Amino acid sequence: MHDESAPNTTWSGGLSDDISRVILSEETIQRRVAELGAQIAADYQGRDLLVVGVLSGSFLFIADLVRQINLPLALDFISVSSYGDRTRSSGVVRMLKDLNQPIAGRDVLLVEDIIDTGLTLSYLIDNLRTRQPASLAVATLLDKKEARVVKIDTAYIGFECPNEFVVGYGLDYAGRYRNLPYIGVLRPEVYAGGDK
Ligand code: PRP
User: Fold this and answer.
1) Does residue 54's CB lie within 6 angstroms of at least one atom of ligand 1?
2) Residue 4 CB: number of other CB atoms within 10 A?
3) Is 76 a catalytic residue?
4) Helix-strand-coil split of the chain, %, nearest 5
5) Which of 37, 86, 88, 147 is deepest in the core (most CB within 10 A)?
6) What pTM does this model have?
């Protein structure tokens, strides 16, 4: 049973202790997300905007982003799994959860936490295009340009990302660290310990 009198120091302290360097602070992220939201609201005024989050990594970004878009938008989620090693996708993608609704004739904005090789989005864009949306655009919080193997047209980019393995604000290492409110680099000891 949870003891209300005991501070949960193990969890909150332990999480940040694994980070060697903060790349984007919570304040910096929130400021940029507000700018992107305002830009998207201006661009999509009067249109039938359907914002589609690519799970799981985009969950915090999309939650903050849609609250900064002052339009009566609709929301949906899609989930794919890409085969590959721990830190890099292979381009072979499997649909885990499809959209809940048709997108024909709608203005779809795909929201990602990060574009790395571009293979995941390349698959998703090809797949969604066959459903004939009125338009299909991409918003990503992070753009790791150096890692790209396929070209992706990205309408909205939060930040360029260094070619390092970053975690936080939705991004995970072995399923952990998604709940950090900022983005940082993991200490090498965490990798050395293998998958947690
Ligand atoms: C991450 C991220 C993107 C993809 C980008 O997802 O959320 O979807 O990798 O990599 P790419 O450009 O090389 O394809 P991941 O497969 O790690 O799943 P997650 O969103 O559940 O963390």
Assistant:
1) yes
2) 5
3) no
4) 30, 35, 40
5) 37
6) 0.89
